[in-house]
Amino acid sequence: MKFTDGYWRKRGGLTVLHPAHLQDTATAPDSLTVWAATRPIHHRGDTLNSALITVNCTAPAPDVIRVTVSHFAGERSRTPNFTIDEVAGDVSVDRLSLTSGALTARFSDGDNWGLDFLADGRRLTGSGWKGMGVVSGPDGDYIHEQLDLGVGHVVYGLGERFGPLIKNGQTVDIWQEDGGTSSEQAYKNVPFYLTNGGYGVLVDHPGKVSFEVASEMVTRTQFSVAGQSLSYLVIYGPTPADIIRKYTALTGRPALPPAWSFGLWLTTSFTTDYDEETVNKFVGGMADRDLPLSVFHFDCFWMREFNWCDFEWDPRVFPDPPGMLKRLADRGLKTCLWINPYIAQRSPLFAEGASRGYLVRRPNGDVFQCDLWQAGMGLVDFTKPEAREWYAGKLRGLVEMGVDAFKSDFGERVPTDVVWHDGSDPERMHNYYTQLYNEVVFEVLRSARGEGEAVLFARSATVGGQQFPVHWGGDNSSTYESMAESLRGGLSLMSSGFGFWSHDIGGFEGMPDPAVFKRWVAFGLLSSHSRLHGSSSYRVPWLFDEESVDVLRHFTHLKYRLMPYIYGAAREAHLTGLPVMRPMPVAFPADPAATYLDRQYMLGADLLVAPVFSAGGEVSYYVPEGRWTRYVPSTGNADVVEGPRWVREIHGFDSAPLLVRPGAVIPVGARRDRPDYDYRDGVTLRLFEPAEGRTAVVVPGPAGADTVFTVSRSGPEIVVGRMGDALPWQVQLGDQVTSLAADEDSCTLTLG
């Protein structure tokens, strides 16, 4: 939201007050409160007919400072609120500053108003003259804050946004919408951003937050909320990865998804015709072509039309659901069902939910209803404990039947002209609703299947939503442009604290050209999670051409053999918050060339992926410093690429740029038929440009029985050792392959 008319004037009809004079301060052991007058105070008469703005600073965690800006303190308390896990740390306070760990908030005294944030002897950012503002106008009252952007400083994050990865120059409203992947709207709105300037910012407001990122004021990031107070947290890094770690420590780390969820998912698609015979044809066709599936997903029409959601299988096409689920399980498949939080009027559950007060109501007591999406649908009120249990009970019945996962669709279309059971503010609940919805569904699975076995395929999210993986990118189109915008959305979400992400391979809307499908397959199988899904057309590969079958087989086998490495990256996401798919600016913050990259990413710490967005295979990507090795040789392209440099290449459909970072040790599994197996049994350690010194690699084992390998290089000699269970293993260095028996715990190689 913009409040100014150019640099000097305010927009018509607005009154804006800014702190101008630090009038007084008060300290406590863990807080600093500052009172600022909105004009210089030189004598007692200046205190009359004047506003006083209160600024309070606290330290919710080390290297984190919360700033709360308030005008009128009598505003009633509103819910819901984000859950912030506060951790006590070293805090020091004096009259003008508060320090938390390495981060200091320091105010200027007297008429020279200002708030600076400093760390490691330098100024990170700050709120200067006319930075804070109290706004009154015909549309209501607002509080805004503006934090400086230094020369060359850029902003990332703010949820899953499909425009440019860098948000400078953009207006971003944090407001959940079902807008597809080609607009400025977003399914996953997160009022958190990180910068390459050593800090990130979380605006602690679950309702609408309006950001002007180097747009209204081109040297500042402005954020504003309606009302009389605004609270935000400044998080010191210094690196983007450090900021993400500290942000997710505050708002929640992702649960670890089960290993099977990293395999290939195939769906019925959305409006296509299907029954059990169709499902069996697809499953059998994949098996006959050596295309190993992990999950089969039933989209909306597993239920009868106009009955979503009644959680009952359509008996006309699925007469024996328990038997069908068992037959799929006997083939080694997990199953997933589509759900949403809306209850159509024709569903028997509508009358039940309405009579018990489980559906959201309008202020006059009527059940909120609309025909958008489902005829006469109501919305489950997850603020009511009984409604949560009612909805969860329906899901538990399906889990007991044999269902393994749920696609928790929607959660964005939440009205504001309603009354919530717990008195929540409708404006704040609009964005926050998804957190309650996905939490209910995730907890059903976690409680039934156990820790580490719960996984969603969710579309909407807000702050904290990363705790309930996995999220997918929403309704894209079957074009290269939409493939690229999907990647930008994913990288933006990964910059916002989310560890796992997926997208509809081939695009959701339309029937993809075979070339689009094949290029998207490579991108999809080199993502954390991989799903074939469409709207009005199927996504089994033989409907495109026979080469599509070969391409899907190649990349599925590749991913399954990479599972020891990928699952290790997943564990890191679970423990630290660092995403499996890492934006290049997060992975290489000191490389200025990485700042603007949004068509490539790191898969884990050591694999560089550059999807191909052209039928002819032309691709351009950037390689950071060092000797990078191509993981799979590619015809016509050099096996080793020396960076830093830009590379232009041509790739066939069975290839995409996949380079290994120098010094990496990639554990490669022995199986390519499934994603969940004992990664240690027959593992091959592939060594790439081994560096002097010692490297440790953990290969995950079942029930935490991990094996640790160490690689030590001194000159041309490389010693590889093992600590863990006795299982056969291999070491590969270039063309050298050394096979070791289960009782051999070390080997020595010599660089040729």
UniProtKB/TrEMBL annotation:
<dbReference type="InterPro" id="IPR013780">
    <property type="entry name" value="Glyco_hydro_b"/>
</dbReference>
<dbReference type="InterPro" id="IPR025887">
    <property type="entry name" value="Glyco_hydro_31_N_dom"/>
</dbReference>
<dbReference type="InterPro" id="IPR050985">
    <property type="entry name" value="Alpha-glycosidase_related"/>
</dbReference>
<protein>
    <recommendedName>
        <fullName>alpha-D-xyloside xylohydrolase</fullName>
        <ecNumber>3.2.1.177</ecNumber>
    </recommendedName>
</protein>
<keyword id="KW-0378">Hydrolase</keyword>
<feature type="domain" description="Glycoside hydrolase family 31 N-terminal">
    <location>
        <begin position="55"/>
        <end position="212"/>
    </location>
</feature>
<dbReference type="GO" id="GO:0061634">
    <property type="term" value="F:alpha-D-xyloside xylohydrolase"/>
</dbReference>
<dbReference type="GO" id="GO:0030246">
    <property type="term" value="F:carbohydrate binding"/>
</dbReference>
<dbReference type="InterPro" id="IPR048395">
    <property type="entry name" value="Glyco_hydro_31_C"/>
</dbReference>
<dbReference type="InterPro" id="IPR011013">
    <property type="entry name" value="Gal_mutarotase_sf_dom"/>
</dbReference>
<feature type="domain" description="Glycoside hydrolase family 31 TIM barrel">
    <location>
        <begin position="254"/>
        <end position="568"/>
    </location>
</feature>
<dbReference type="InterPro" id="IPR017853">
    <property type="entry name" value="GH"/>
</dbReference>
<dbReference type="Pfam" id="PF21365">
    <property type="entry name" value="Glyco_hydro_31_3rd"/>
</dbReference>
<keyword id="KW-0326">Glycosidase</keyword>
<dbReference type="GO" id="GO:0005975">
    <property type="term" value="P:carbohydrate metabolic process"/>
</dbReference>
<dbReference type="InterPro" id="IPR000322">
    <property type="entry name" value="Glyco_hydro_31_TIM"/>
</dbReference>
<feature type="domain" description="Glycosyl hydrolase family 31 C-terminal">
    <location>
        <begin position="577"/>
        <end position="666"/>
    </location>
</feature>
<comment type="similarity">
    <text>Belongs to the glycosyl hydrolase 31 family.</text>
</comment>
<dbReference type="Pfam" id="PF01055">
    <property type="entry name" value="Glyco_hydro_31_2nd"/>
</dbReference>
<dbReference type="Pfam" id="PF13802">
    <property type="entry name" value="Gal_mutarotas_2"/>
</dbReference>
